[in-house]
Amino acid sequence: MSHEGDTQGTLFPSGAADPTPTSAGRKPKGGDAARGTGGGSAAERMARQQREISVSEFFTKNRHLLGFDSPRKALLTAVKEAVDNSLDACEEARIVPDLQVEIRAVQGRENTFTVIVEDNGPGIVPKQVPNVFGRLLYGSKFHRLRQSRGQQGIGIAAAGMYSQLTTGNPMRITSRIGRKALPYFFTVRMDTTRNRPEFTEKVVEWDKDHGTRVEIDLEGEYRRGQRSVEEFLKLVALANPHVRIAFKDPEGVATLFDRATTELPKETEEIKPHPHGVELGQLIKMLQDTEEKWVHLFLQRDFSRVGPKVAEEICAAAKINPRANPRVIVKEDADRLKKAIDQTRIMAPPTSCIAPIGEELMLKGLRKEVEADFYVATSRSPVVYRGRPFLVEVGIAFGRPGDTLLLTEEGKIVEQKKKVENQEALMGNADEPVRLIRYANRVPLMFQQSACAISKSVIATNWRNYGLQQPRGALPIGPMVLMVHIASVWVPFTSESKEAIAGYDEIFKEIRLGIQECARKLGTHIRKGRKLASEFKKRGFIEKYIPHIGQALKEILSLDDRQVGECVGRLTTVLEKSRKL
Amino acid sequence: MSHEGDTQGTLFPSGAADPTPTSAGRKPKGGDAARGTGGGSAAERMARQQREISVSEFFTKNRHLLGFDSPRKALLTAVKEAVDNSLDACEEARIVPDLQVEIRAVQGRENTFTVIVEDNGPGIVPKQVPNVFGRLLYGSKFHRLRQSRGQQGIGIAAAGMYSQLTTGNPMRITSRIGRKALPYFFTVRMDTTRNRPEFTEKVVEWDKDHGTRVEIDLEGEYRRGQRSVEEFLKLVALANPHVRIAFKDPEGVATLFDRATTELPKETEEIKPHPHGVELGQLIKMLQDTEEKWVHLFLQRDFSRVGPKVAEEICAAAKINPRANPRVIVKEDADRLKKAIDQTRIMAPPTSCIAPIGEELMLKGLRKEVEADFYVATSRSPVVYRGRPFLVEVGIAFGRPGDTLLLTEEGKIVEQKKKVENQEALMGNADEPVRLIRYANRVPLMFQQSACAISKSVIATNWRNYGLQQPRGALPIGPMVLMVHIASVWVPFTSESKEAIAGYDEIFKEIRLGIQECARKLGTHIRKGRKLASEFKKRGFIEKYIPHIGQALKEILSLDDRQVGECVGRLTTVLEKSRKL
Q: Does residue A93 sit at the B interface (CB-CB below 8 Å)?
């Protein structure tokens, strides 16, 4: 390395580089020996405090990063993590999901609830249950490139950790992997110092052939309305028309979110990383870790979209022997290999790893959940950020039926037909901001709207172009539900709680394009409605005033009723014609 | 547990709980044996993919969580992490910090820089160097309750990880712990699969008695202006008047941020957790982990503010024998113990763990860095959130000198004396939003302003009450620098990159109170200025029109010049009197 020489002497001359101990300060004494560890220097005192921090300790202290910062949010987050896992498991096993979600108040303990989520999924093999539920950063979805709701191996174990912290109780899991297998019941705790599970297990009776049931006790707060568990499930249903969820709230009220289709989302395939998304450090690691013996095979088998010809081209450009051993490639060679990869044309990554909702099902979902005057949806083609394919889908439901005729020239609805009575209704009133619903890999994002790339893209769009009012730096105003979905093999979230999408340029751009595509159609609809409204207004004038003119003519010219009728008729025809109706 | 019985049978009756495999789906077959692992069921296929995710792999993929999402931000984040560590180490060793920060372009490689940060701190004992720099979640600050810049054990190792990822190069560290110790030079890499360091070490020559020098190569972008390294260092200097930083940019231009005092911040003390901030799960863990033999001793020695009397009171209320062994306390007892703790009056936690900047030094810093017309600062008393002491400090610098006289009734400055020429000036123009500078434990927060509890509190304040304009949901408008500092033993950040403070209620409240305290004084100043401006305006009228009146009287009444002078003089006196100047 070229910089080693620089470590001699100070960086560049500056005033006084000497240590300046204050009167109150203790001057470092230096070690007893050159590498002494028992000495009394500041460095040695500090060294004795240095130690490993377990990831569970870290997240216990930082639990707001996981979505457990308030009792209300904690309850919703626990439901969300369990539901996400159930849906992922069902889809991966190609089972149409049937979920039961229940929230029960724990007797004799204030603000404490049991969250129960039960699915008809494939179950979890017994020996993995303690790890899946009792360890942070453990899972099957992190290392693969394939769309799924979970991706971090944190969520459900975090819910258990929060449960343990606030109630002292373990999670309880029942699981069965098939009719011939025995159902097992587990209690799982987490040893947060080691980030390892502590558990009990036993065989139980269960009348399900396969599935998983999770029970979590936690300190929480149950409320209805916006950002409630019920709303979350409703939004899940909207973007997942193949899912049925039966929900029972703490008062025992049951709600069924039924499915609109039994067709599962397209089965996604795991892909290899795309060469253009790989950074130097990652390439070096892949060269060291590969099982291939030759560089050209490494390129072909450890990456997507690299065939023999492209591999050869890359090796030639990098001046590397295609039959060189990947494990002995030195850094300088890796550097050239990286440059050669970047300069070689390679086909875009396969998109079989992503499963969009699709325009048709988005419209179906919107029509089912939102009563509106106008619907439009778009599902864009997949593109790539950092070698990872993703795609954006946008849906709009606009105006309550009949509202269109009330639109003024300024795009404002002057008179609202009726106030929204149902507080769980997704669409707001005409003088309120549009209702933005954000999704990542079919999961509704319930919090941190303002920090999300989706919201930022919506705000950055000029909605006046499409006939809507929009205060500066804010969401547009109008009776509208705007649904934006981003599907990817790896969604970059702004925190582990997965509440908002980070603002990568490629993602911003795609969201903006998707919104514009829908908004243009909305704009046409609004303008048409406005023209119509203006027509009705003018026609209203004719209908209102012509009879009076008739009456006046009658008196001035002493016409009889027939003559008045004839005159009024002709006047109306002339006026209508002049408006070119 | 009372819920175990529920695991038999389904949750509650619903339509069809049977699995519904689609034609495309593969129906789970069940294991070959009850606990088979080699079988072909979906659960078994999925189990084979489940594995541990190392924390370094997690953060490599999620590096935007650590502040490394764009080349520009990455460069600043690396500087920030190294500077934070240096200042923490110096202060802990009671050494007045002298830092040298340099950014060099790497020859022959675009967008690649070497970040060098060298301090006069206590150094790091050689055997800890690889762990400190080559492992995430390793450090001395996480487990203690005491104010420091670093708290997670992530920052500097994350910078190294990003360096390795983008350039393939290791970090280079030179460190010496005292005159009698040998200076060591290390290269440190991270094995991200295991989150463990790989390193080389050797003894070198170094003319420093003690200190640490870190060199990091990384892909970055160097820019001046807002959110630049230079601005960051300037803001560090503002809140840390005891620090001297010499900075050299990639073009070799040197800037010295000199210190305003040699007095170090008050030495902070580590405290024990406060009983009122402890949750049930944590209490159970502390009972298990304690070295004390009796519950009453455990309460006294493992918590702050619990003396023999309070311990006895708690035990009595919990109906627990004070001499019971903490390790055999069952969950029901712990439950009662927790309730007893919550119901017992316990003194607020000691605040020796926090070191505020103080009003005087805040004003000194503001005066040094911002030329203004009016300064005010406040340092509030410490309060507690979740058992953790914290305090809020607010400083305001308002108006460029002379501006006051231009204020109109609406609080708008009609005419700006001159445009800001120096783009690094902290204060904006009169028609721009105020400049908000956020600090956490003396570290400037450079990104994610909108997601931060500080910004939210500023926006939620009604600045019209204090004479400033304020658009709805936005920062107030005016030529003003607003500095808000939160100091705590544990600052809850919204992500690992420590860019914004999470919105806990207690924190919101304190920030609001701090702002109001300063803003009231600002309001008085602005009103005074406005009154003055209005006076000047009226006096201007008199001076302007009276001579004309005199001239008119002269012509009408044929007065001579002396009479005119006399008349004008008397008129002016009368008018001035009637204004009660």
A: yes
Q: Name every residue whose Cβ is closer than 8 Å to that of residue B41 and which is 6 or more positions away in sequence.
A: A122, A123, A177, A178, A181, B28, B29, B30, B31
ipTM: 0.81
Contact: B127, A37; criterion CB under 8 Å: yes
The tokens describing A249, both together, are 């709230």
Chain B residue numbers with beta carbons less than 8 Å from the beta carbon of A493 are 62
Give the helix ranges, DSSP H, for A98-183.
Answer: 129-134, 155-167
pTM of the model: 0.82
Per-residue model confidence as pLDDT tens digits over A283-341? 999 999 999 999 999 999 999 999 999 999 999 999 999 999 999 888 889 999 999 99
Q: Which residues of chain A does B49 touch, with a Cβ-Cβ cutoff of 8 Å?
A: 140, 143-144
**For residues A249 and A241, what is the distance between their CA atoms, to the nearest angstrom?**
22
**Contacts (Cβ under 8 Å, ≥6 apart) of A108:** none
Structure confidence at residue B39 (pLDDT): 54
Cβ atoms < 10 Å from Cβ of B514: 23
Two tokens at B2? Answer: 């009372």
Give the residue carrying structure tokens 């993590």.
A81
- Chain A and chain B share a number of CB contacts under 8 A equal to 450
Cα B294 to Cα A522, B336, B443, distances in angstroms: 72, 17, 42
Angle at B84 (CA atoms; ends B81, B85), nearest 5 degrees: 90
With 0-12 CB in 10 A as exposed, 13-18 as middle and 19+ as buried, what is A477?
Answer: buried
Interface mutation vs chain B, best among A152, A156, A177, most B CBs within 10 Å: A177
Residue B332 is given by DSSP the state H
Contact of B19 with chain A, judged by CB distance below 8 Å, is answered with: yes
Which residue in B135, B167, B209 is closest to A19 by CB distance?
A: B209
pLDDT digits (tens, 9 = 90+) for A518-569: 999 999 998 887 776 677 666 676 677 777 777 777 777 777 888 878 877 7
Point out the residue among B102, B125, B473 whose CB comes nearest to the CB of A12: B102
Helices (H), A276-397: 280-289, 295-302, 308-318, 331-343, 359-369
Minimal-distance CA residue of chain A relative to B471? A472
Cα-Cα-Cα-Cα torsion B298, B300, B306, B311, nearest 10 degrees, comes to: 70
Residues from chain A that touch B451, judged by Cβ atoms under 8 A, are: 448, 450-451, 494
Contact B34 A4 (CB under 8 A): no
Question: Contacts of residue A122 in chain B, CB cutoff 8 Å?
Answer: 28, 41-43, 46
